Amino acid sequence: MTSQPKAQRRRLVVGNWKMNGTREDNSCLLQNILADWPTLVNVDVAICPPFVYIEQVARALSPRELYWGGQSVNPNAPGAYTGEVSAQMLRDLDCRYVIVGHNERRRLQHESDDCVARQFLAAQAEGLTPILCVGESSEQRKQGQALATIGRQLKAVLEVAGLEAFSNAVVAYEPIWAVGTGVTATPEEAAQVHAFIRDQFADVGQSLVILYGGSVKPENAAELFAKPDIDGALLGGASLKAQDFIAICQCAENAGK
Ligand code: PGA
């Protein structure tokens, strides 16, 4: 297994607000985050709010050199897709990132590997950086199928996008059993999967940013980020609490120092 000192890769923390917040809630959360925002030089930070609040978040974050993105994208060119949002639209709102293949979308919106691959391509075609989520269910882990499952999910995108496409992409390992459950993968469990993921990308893997997601909290972030192949985090619950969000970004900043 290959791994490389993380100093050579930039760290990244992404907040996924999921379907939470009102304009007022967001305004309060953003104010609280920005009021105590530390100087971070080693970490990029982004927030992915619901589509309808992207402009609100962008207005608040842009003066601070923080980034924003979408939680999903429709892979088709603009047209007759009621209720959907295209990559062009996300680009129009100056999004830097878009999450693709989050397990909630795969499970609840029945997004197939093929659909996720098309989202990945559509995002890149508009100059967005896709954050490709992969991860196994607890059943798959119990059956010893975790790596095989993740390998399949990666291959579906690699086959259509090619290896080089991953020089402008992020991969997030999110074990389904850890997302929103309060149960976090141990640093060793996560590290094993991250090293496996990096190995799937040959040379490109060395510069690939690989995030861990699944019940990351201020209490467990530092030990996760201490693992050489864990380059940051994709946060759900913790991104909705200003102090937790800041503390985790600070842990990413300090990791490897
Ligand atoms: P969680 O969610 O941090 O609440 O577990 C992570 C995610 O869904 O990206």
Task: Write structural notes for this entry.
- The chain has helices spanning 23-35, 54-61, 87-92, 103-108, 113-125, 138-142, 146-161, 187-199, 218-225, 242-254; strands at residues 11-16, 43-48, 67-70, 97-100, 129-134, 170-173, 209-213, 232-235.
- Strands 1-2-3-4-5-6-7-8 form an 8-stranded parallel barrel, surrounded by 6 helices.
- The chain has a single domain (6-254), classed as TIM Barrel.
- The chain contains 10 helices and 8 strands.
- The chain binds 2-phosphoglycolic acid (PGA).
- 2-phosphoglycolic acid binds next to strand 8.
Order of helices and strands: EHEHEHEHHEHHEHEHEH
Which radius of gyration do the C-alpha atoms yield? 17 Å
Can you list the ligands bound to this structure? 2-phosphoglycolic acid
CATH topology: TIM Barrel
List the helices and strands and how they pair.
Blueprint: E1 11-16, H1 23-35, E2 43-48, H2 54-61, E3 67-70, H3 87-92, E4 97-100, H4 103-108, H5 113-125, E5 129-134, H6 138-142, H7 146-161, E6 170-173, H8 187-199, E7 209-213, H9 218-225, E8 232-235, H10 242-254
Parallel strand pairs: 1-2, 1-8, 2-3, 3-4, 4-5, 5-6, 6-7, 7-8
Bound molecules: 2-phosphoglycolic acid.
2-phosphoglycolic acid (PGA) binds next to strand 8.
